Amino acid sequence: MSLAGILGHPVGHSLSPIFQNAAFKECGLDVRYELWDTPPEALAGRVVSLRDPKYLGANVTIPHKVAVFPLLDELGGQAARAGAVNTIVNRGGRLYGFNTDGPGFVAALKNESSFDPAGKSILLVGAGGAARGIAFALAEARAAHISIVNRSPERALKLAADVAVTGAEVRAAAGEPDLSRYDCIVNCTSLGMRGGPAPGELPCAIGAARPGALAVDIVYTPAQTPFLTAAAAAGLKTLGGLPMLIYQGALAFELWTGVHAPVEVMFEAARKALAARESAAAR
Length: 283
Ligand code: NDP
Prior knowledge:
By secondary structure, the protein is an alpha/beta fold. The protein contains nine helices and twelve strands.
């Protein structure tokens, strides 16, 4: 049997074992995906152990996405530009770091909302780790314009400057942006997340978006966030955070195995687990 897993601290809430194990089973692969709770002082030792042939690799989550860089042999895809690794692949004892968060976001837009970012104007609300991966992926997908607004403006300025190096048209928006200018508005903050800093708050006044715009929330617990509810009430198209989670996992699965990921099976397993959690939270 081969192993894969998620490195983070804490990782108990992660849905990845549920949908990755469903995918391995569906494809008849003898792989088990585990939760590897890894405090910072244990990270180096844990990553070294991944060179063993029994490991396909790992996912990496908070707080290790940046700290893991110097422990890897090579970076692939968008990892270097995005400044974060969320997937490690063991190839013959060498460790390769990738970032599938941003590409997973773009795949979710295209496959689940038929929205191709090429030529579109997109507003990111938030400038944390997730926004960073998304901004670089949108630049690579040839978005016409990317604006970034954040509670701490210096973080939006830094992200916009980093992404501008790719040649994309990107700027940090100051104050309350004019939402009617965008084809797509993305909540990349943790506002609305159950157990987060402000589960009932909206990241922006989404009702001011232009008719026909797409509102995307990358928060996936709860499935229906206040942002999505307000966007739907304003007649906008909406997309929740689960598709991004599934597609980043599907891309990692494909990097580890070379096998096409059974995305529908992964969705079904994750939806079932989320529904069980939501009914437990409602009790
Ligand atoms: P970070 O901690 O890196 O960034 C958090 C962001 O939220 C920052 O922009 C921060 O602003 C903003 N924020 C936090 N609290 C407030 C507040 N009270 N008011 C205004 N803004 C606030 O987190 P991540 O980028 O890693 O994750 C953000 C969210 O995205 C989380 O809910 C996470 O679960 C979700 N996520 C979903 C993924 C998916 O696959 N669907 C993948 C990754 C993340 P500031 O800079 O001012 O602190």
